[in-house]
């Protein structure tokens, strides 16, 4: 049976892999295996619209004081499938307000930002309402980064009543939701009078 | 949710039922187990019916016999789907999240590929001479492409929101487009510049067609809150920009239609039925 080392050495011998002169085969094998451990699965795509709006202003505070709905912090990091942080990615999100209404005239509950070197991002919003034509509450994401495939997807909330507490079992109740991977747990913080929701949504882009 | 996809998915729960002109004639086409219809189009010659199916395959049937004529494998995940036949019914353009493909049906080959913007193309249309394809794209632009090469010919950049319907004027000089902006814009197909905009309405534009003489446009509007609620269709006088007729009926949801000779034939749903209406 061939080991990974055998395969790699064969690749080197046949020219399938070229090693830089200052890089020993052993060091490359170690680096190769290290990389393999870091491989991430790309974030599944999901439909764009139909209410995407161009020229969304740079803004990550979408919730205005006094807005109805449960305050929500969306946060995470942008990676690629090799596990590298993707700096300079642009993340744009849009969603309904608490009442399930998209703002087509203006830019309420629409915002974008560019991540820094850490790839980290956060938006301040509210848990979106139920848009009447959709089964699930959701937040739209558009992620653009040089050298990577543009990601269009949607984030769903595990607390959505439609899942009846079991997203893994009930995710397909929304025909546009073909995987439970886009449903994220909701962390509730604060005291009972000021509950605040937090949702971590890591984004993984495919390299071009 | 996409209006035509949602409506047609509801309508075309397996199997597809074709209603011929006589209400007594009915034809049924069976799809593979588990597959449903995402988008459907009938050829201008009336001889073919094409559907993008949920198993990511475009199927083309004989409208007369119901026999499967072609299978075109495309649309990797079929997230955004639209179909359009060329005016001579020889070509078919399909739009999915993997891009727009133009197929030569007789030669069984893809003749052009149009790279997608992000979000795909919710609507597309051939020019009357079949040489151009206009796409209403998810990124908010309307683009005109060479149907033989896929090369970009013109881009309309004046829109902010996603457009959901597109059609050429009979002379091919204009592209009409509308969507979440709740208006219909008349775009110069060579330059991409918006020449005129019909008065804005309260609803989102989900379907439009232009009469053969180019004098009228039929535009289907939906509430932005729901594409499944009662809605209306307006017949516009294109030259004057005035409303000729505003049609709505309690309990029915209008999907879209096409001008057939001098009439606009409108497809609508109500109580699990597909109903066809003729507007003078």
In short:
By secondary structure, chain A is of the alpha/beta class.
How is this structure best described in words?
The complex is a heterodimer of chains A (208) and B (280). By secondary structure, chain A is α/β, with parallel strands linked by helices. Helices cover 13% and strands 26% of the residues of chain A. Chain A has helices spanning 4-14, 25-37, 167-170; strands at residues 71-80, 90-94, 110-114, 120-126, 138-144, 151-157, 183-184, 187-189, 196-200, 203-205. In chain A, the strands form 2 sheets. In chain A, strands 1, 4, 8, 9 and 10 form a 5-stranded mixed β-sheet that branches. In chain A, strands 3-2-5-6-7 form a 5-stranded mixed β-sheet, with no helix packed on it. Chain A is elongated and about 65 Å long. In chain A, 34% of the residues are buried. With 280 residues, chain B is mostly beta strands. Helices cover 3% and strands 51% of the residues of chain B. Chain B is built from 1 helix and 25 strands. In chain B, the strands form 7 sheets. A 4-stranded antiparallel β-sheet of chain B has the order 3-4-5-6. A 4-stranded antiparallel β-sheet of chain B has the order 7-8-9-10, with no helix packed on it. In chain B, strand 4 (48-53) and strand 5 (57-62) form a beta hairpin. In chain B, 47% of the residues are buried. The interface between A and B is medium-sized, with 25 and 32 residues.
